[in-house]
Amino acid sequence: MEQKMLVTQALDQRDLLVKKICDKIRKASFTETKKHNEEKVMERRVTQKEFEKEARSSYQQIIDLIHWYDKVDQAILRSNAETIIETSYGAMSIANALALRSRLNCSNAYDSDSNFEGNLMMKLEEELNEKIRVMEQKNKGLQNTAETMRLSILGKDTKTKDETPLKVVDVYVQENTTELIDPLNVRKKINELNERRETILNELDTKIKVSNATTFVEIN
Predict the structure, then answer these.
(1) How far apart are CA 66 and CA 11, in angstroms?
(2) Disulfide check for 5: which of 9, 71, 103, 215 has CB 3.0–4.6 Å away?
(3) What's the pLDDT tens digit per position in 41-53?
(4) Which residues are registered as beta bridge partners of 5?
């Protein structure tokens, strides 16, 4: 019997079927034990014929539900492959959109490896922070060295000394100051990557929901 329904309804039915199948498997009983001189099986306390009928019925119900689940799932997958949406990444099928959303959300089988944007942002952030730390540490050490040089040249009582030699210290500090080299403007790139990720995720969520709520599938 053919059924026509929206993708959203098919998704709900698929989720419900998972629960039903698992519940029936958990509750079903397919084997029993019985004393030769008794009519009823030991655990379920029904006759052997009744138990055999129940076991066959439970098994068939589970097989039928699995078969129907496969049909619903196939209809959803077929629709996802055939339905095209327009995104800022270009035109793509719902299947591609779902895969992209999964990757950006880091929710697939290759979480750590396929989270490219996340890994890139982390690399940029970690390296920038490390280089800033090194720069500040080096410059702090340089200032300490410069102060030692000043005291060595002038002594502690600077008011009575000639300050001309201090120019040597200033030149030394200027030439040895550590600078941050940031050709990409890393902070800006991190913000751009994050904004881009959030934008496409929101876009995909919206377009997938709209598509699922307006696209019909046929299940037979």
Answers:
(1) 15
(2) 9
(3) 887 788 988 989 9
(4) 217
